[in-house]
Amino acid sequence: xxxxxxxxxxxxxxxxxxxxxxxAELADRFVVPDDRLYxxxxxxxxxxxxxxxxxERVVDEWRDLLIGGWTDADPPWFDVGERLGTAxxxxxxxxxxxxxxxxxxxxxxxxLVGTFLDALLAGDGPSRAxxxxxxxxxxxxxxxxxxxxxxxxxxxxxxxxxxxxxxxxDPEAKxxxxxxxxxxTIDPRDVEATLEAHDDVGIVFMPTALYRxxxxxDVDRIATAAHAAGAYAGFDAAHSVGxxxxxxxxxxxDFAMWCTYKYLNAGPGAVGALFVAERHHGRTPALAGWWGxxxxxxxxxxxxxxxAGTAGAWQIGTPPLLAAAPLEGAVEILxxxxxDRLRTKSLALTDFLIALVDDRLSEVSxxxxxxxxxxxxxxxxxxxxxxxxxEALTDxxxxxxxxxxxxxxxxxxxxxxxxxxxxxxxxxxxAILETGAHEAYAAxxxxxx
Length: 449
Description:
Elements: H1 10-19, E1 30-31, E2 37-38, E3 47-48, H2 49-65, H3 69-72, H4 80-92, E4 99-101, H5 105-121, E5 145-149, H6 154-166, H7 171-174, E6 175-178, H8 188-197, E7 201-207, H9 219-228, E8 232-236, H10 248-251, E9 255-258, E10 273-276, H11 321-337, H12 339-360, E11 365-366, E12 379-382, H13 386-395, E13 398-399, E14 401-403, E15 407-410, H14 419-435
Parallel strand pairs: 2-13, 5-6, 5-7, 7-8, 8-9
Antiparallel strand pairs: 1-3, 4-10, 9-10, 11-12, 12-15, 14-15
Helix pairs in contact: 1-14, 2-11, 4-11, 5-6, 8-9, 12-14
């Protein structure tokens, strides 16, 4: 929809779209208070009946089976990481053995970036069919650089800098930061230009979607450019998995990681997940731990670490069962709905939101790409008083979040949001701005990502 397209009453448009929505019944399976319009699923997804049921089942198993749950629960706890990895694999276009659930997203950045830095320092560069420029060797006399971008979630940079320092590599010299042209997005041509300008890049590490603006990256294009330059391609997929279908195998991604508490709706602090392409299985993880040991001999307690021959090798400690259990039920809802149908509805919801903002909120700008191929699951609404606007919305039952300096993130997540909900959000923003109600709030506050 575009500015001025509302030749029909938006209330009727929303009603018609909701009536035609094949996923409308999913909303009844999520627990969202009746007095709130929840538009913050890109930070924390709500509980679902299925997620609570799988959590309650594991709590019951803990009570009834105690330590026996590792082998006698149904299913056994012992293989929870691999089992949930298998469930997630179709959402990211991967083989079951390439995805595992474990650790946290930041821990997974540490271990995966560290693993591939170690590979480069040992002289092992990326090599795969279709990327002849990468010959599979690395000059060990050259410290590898890592390419990131200035709009990344800051924690990613903290972890990468730490991994460089631990190998005696100066982050100030070897963390190459691609700058944004507009403060909102990253142009892939600038990533490619950085690769062309430097011959020491060993890893390109990008998000699949930017946390502030919601720009969706062309994973295939970036991975191809990285490999052509002789670099590994890694991705932080936290802000897209569960809302956007991915094809990591087809794109040639080397590694990726994500959280499960945003679009996957697995609960606050839920366990992380990671992808390692099959061609890298057998590498020794940078952060080794007993849960990444090969399963057949894990309990022999050998002094020598033998990594599992799958992505399971990058597990570290004993999996946190109560932080993993809700994911089992949550992901089944998404798989039942189908990631392609969820994406279709997500785009329709954000199209509707953008059209309403264009039509009715002259003070608000859209900071998210309008092109479907470049848009994730949320929309960045830009306003000079965004912080106070977000607080006013929260007090009026609309749960959103603020990102400095001027963004209110609005996420009409497909599983539990309707088109009438989107219209009501815009109605409340319009009322706040027309009355100046947000001006009563102090310019303070914030939130978590």
